[in-house]
């Protein structure tokens, strides 16, 4: 995802790309559109194939009906999951454009999706004074994915901080992607390519 642009900076092929089209914002927008569509199509195919495999392997008598609040959950997972991943891909492209290095992009994405939630959880476990970190953790990309696919329509009664509903999680992920994409675009436009 992030290597769609960072590998060009690392391998110096960005010079040829920007020679053929000197409008840097357009180049990044084209890469973002292509990456989002490719990610959506491939993940949509994967989700539909896995759904079909599950339908074939589960016997009808073992299935239980969904509750009234969960009726839209299969559609959210079948159609919304791939869209969420496409938004995540655009965020990763922005990170790659901002870092201008594949290693930097990998480390930033890993830090954002793995290391930051782990560190926040450790801090939260240390003291009850860090309860506000639950809210911060809930708006990180990996937690947003779980909340989005969980299809929660009302916050649980035992939650003290902010816990996004499924649609709020999707909107927050769009904000993450927009921030990193615009940061990457700004850096690509303003910084010399050499």
Summarize the structure.
It contains eight helices and no strands.
What key attributes describe this structure?
mainly alpha; 8 helices; 194 residues; 73% helix
Number of strands: 0
Largest sheet geometry: none
> What would you call the structural class?
mainly alpha
Low-confidence stretches: none
Number of helices: 8
Describe the protein's architecture and organization:
The chain has eight helices and no strands. By secondary structure, the chain is mainly alpha-helical.
Task: Describe the protein's topology.
Layout: H1 3-10, H2 14-20, H3 24-57, H4 73-99, H5 102-126, H6 133-138, H7 141-150, H8 166-190
């Amino acid at each position: 995802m992030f290597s769609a642009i960072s590998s060009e900076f690392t391998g110096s092929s960005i010079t040829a790309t920007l020679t053929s089209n000197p409008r840097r914002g357009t180049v990044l927008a084209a890469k973002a559109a292509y990456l989002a569509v490719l990610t959506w199509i491939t993940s949509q195919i994967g989700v539909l194939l896995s759904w079909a495999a599950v339908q074939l392997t589960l016997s009808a008598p073992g299935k239980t009906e969904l509750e009234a609040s969960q009726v839209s959950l299969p559609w959210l997972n079948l159609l919304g999951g791939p869209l969420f991943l496409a938004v995540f891909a655009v965020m990763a492209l922005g990170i790659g454009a901002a870092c201008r290095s594949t290693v930097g992009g990998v480390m930033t994405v890993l830090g954002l999706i793995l290391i930051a939630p782990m560190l926040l959880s450790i801090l939260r476990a240390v003291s009850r004074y860090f309860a506000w970190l639950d809210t911060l953790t809930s708006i990180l990309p990996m937690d947003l994915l779980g909340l989005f696919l969980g299809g929660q329509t009302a916050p649980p009664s035992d939650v003290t901080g902010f816990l996004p509903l499924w649609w709020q999680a999707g909107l927050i992920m769009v904000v993450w992607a927009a921030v990193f994409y615009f940061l990457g675009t700004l850096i690509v436009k303003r910084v010399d390519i050499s």
